[in-house]
Amino acid sequence: MNWYLKKRQSFLKKLKMIIDSHCHLEFEPMISNLKEIIERANNNDIKYLLSISTTDKSFNSILKIVEMFRNIYGTYGIHPHETKNYHTLTADKIVKKTQLSKKIIGIGESGLDFYYEHSDPLIQKKLFIEHIHAAQTLNMPLIVHTRSAEVDTYDILKSEMKNKDLKTLIHCFTGSKKFAHKLIDIGCYISASGVVTFKKSKDLADTFLSLPSDRILVETDSPYLSPEPLRGKSNEPSHIVHTVNFLANLKGIDPLVFANITSSNFFNLFGSLN
User: Fold this and answer.
1) Where are the beta strands (DSSP E) in the chain?
2) Which residues pair with 144 in a beta bridge?
């Protein structure tokens, strides 16, 4: 029996997979230490990483990174904070950028952020819709950033989904439980970052407890938002294990099983990876 259990444990370990669905590998300090960071991620069962574009400059760096590492993929999009510099961006231009590499598998991050006044809300909304149309054209997932903009984010998504199907991932969710369930009802996936582990995030933890496990992904948003017990330090993909363990314990699911559930959700949304 002991032999059998050891063999089974070894087999299960081989099956374990975590996917960091949102990181910024092109940002410092990660870009300067990329090989070591990827090695630490691999050693912690993080098999794939999705590096998210925020500007054209970051996208150009991502194109180089995805060619260097087999297990890294990327997206193209303009962060809502940066929309003031992209007034002429259209869905067609986004589509063309995305087609520069087969390893670009999503659109974003795009969305609305009214917490800070870095860009005018009207231009944010305009470019959010352009990103949506590009994602619909390509049938690619849209990675959505939303902060202090629950009503507008939901209304735009719901309205555009009436016109054409839209695969949607709400990244680093920190909103209300009501908002989360409205998003689930229109078919969105929702991603948890290290914020959910913070001691002051009890309401957010309760929200994720209430969400169906088959709609949850995990992310680091590194180099930001390190989870407990690493809060305050620079984040990196290997730290995602703390978020996975926290959510698994919250839901009463074995961490290995929960890790594989979130990876399966990723594949359901983004498709298989080569």
Assistant:
1) 18-23, 46-51, 72-76, 104-113, 142-147, 168-170, 189-192, 216-218
2) 110, 170
Hey, what are 44's tokens? 């912690």
Separation CA 51–CA 59 (nearest Å): 9
- Helix spans in 121-254 (H): 121-138, 150-163, 177-185, 202-210, 240-251
pLDDT tens-place string over residues 181-204:
999 999 999 999 999 999 999 999
Structure token pair of residue 100: 């520069």
pLDDT of residue 2: 52
Residues 216, 247 contacting (CB under 8 angstroms)? yes
Structural tokens at position 58: 């970051």
Cα(72)–Cα(183) distance, integer angstroms: 28
Q: What is the pTM of this model?
A: 0.93
DSSP type of residue 164: S
Confidence of residue 1 (pLDDT cuts 50, 70, 90): very low
